[in-house]
Amino acid sequence: MPHIAFGTPRKLPKPEQLKGRVVVLDIAFAAGPDGASFERTTKPFIDGLGKRLAAWIDHHDHLLHAQFASDPRFVLRTKAEHGACPEMVTPERVAAAGRVDTICCHNDFDGLCSAAKWILGGVEPYPGADDDARAIDTRLGTPSERAIILDRALRARPRDDAMAGLVVRFLAGRAEDRALFSEIETAAEAMRPREDEARRIATGYRASGDVAFVQVPSPHDPYDKTLLLMIGQERARISVVADGTTVTVAARFDSGVNLLELLNIDGGMPTVVSVNSKRLAEVLETLGYR
Predict the structure, then answer these.
(1) Residue ranges of domains in the chain, CATH in brackets
(2) Start-end of H helices in 6-56
């Protein structure tokens, strides 16, 4: 069982804290005009790992993928090519990487399922797990009830490494441990109030052209931003959620909208971007919201 470390594009562990040879799964290169960037975040991580980096497998769009095309350790694709990362974790790629001491993965369902699949030698934790990851990560299709519960538990505790570790253990055990699953179900129930708050906030959506916009009121209870964005996408091609610090813009995976081009942002996902709240007026004007 390799060591498991968790990360996000904007927050990666220190290379010296990761034991031995490392595989990175479902973590995009950092991008965006605010905060983390490839040069400040991703590149120092890659350089710090050096020859200890066994493989980096990811499916998020980034302009700098081309720079790593000649390095066989990097298997970098786009969301259009692979809707989720687990389907890219194959027995052949696991074998090619050789011995791995640490898995560093994204702490969502997609990333944790990728980690469990790597532990299992490139075999799905359960039949249909790849399809579940694709449905959850693209928000297209219907995942299984088991996957919905796992995803809700992770969204209920987004910064809880213990919960993420629990999910990896459950999946690496081929999703058969009822005691582990019972703990995960309990955590998932905590998501219901956040979903209810998202639906309450969603009553404030106003649509104009291709955009549905909502300003999160203050004060407010904790809410599920993913659900709030999805409700907006039911009303227009593009949903915009603004809170006190961040403006998040999202479009359906199959919408044909490229927010990176529209908002002049380098790298990242073409259908989901976040910028500083100071740019709200600019974003709404660019998107044609009146």
Answers:
(1) 3-189 (no CATH), 194-287 (3.10.310.30)
(2) 43-49
